Amino acid sequence: MVMTRMAIYVGGPLDGEQVSAARRQRSANN
């Protein structure tokens, strides 16, 4: 579990940015 999360954090910074953008859009809509 930990290793998979580490790989996601290290190998997927773009995914994190997309998630943050989605959260901002939701907060703006709400």
What sequence of helices (H) and strands (E) makes up the elements? HH
Helix % is over 70%
Mean pLDDT: 66
How far the N terminus sits from the C terminus, by CA atoms, comes to 33 Å
- What's the alpha carbon Rg, rounded to whole Å? 12 Å
Strand content: under 5%
Secondary structure class reads: mainly alpha
Please provide a written account of the structure.
The protein has 30 residues and is mainly alpha-helical. Helices cover 90% and strands 0% of the residues. The mean pLDDT is 66.
Can you tag this structure with a few keywords?
30 residues; elongated; 2 helices; 90% helix; single chain; mainly alpha
How do the strands and helices of this protein lay out in sequence?
Layout (H helix, E strand, L loop, with lengths): L1 H10 L1 H17 L1
Sum this structure up briefly.
This protein has 30 residues and is mostly helical. The protein has helices spanning 2-11, 13-29.
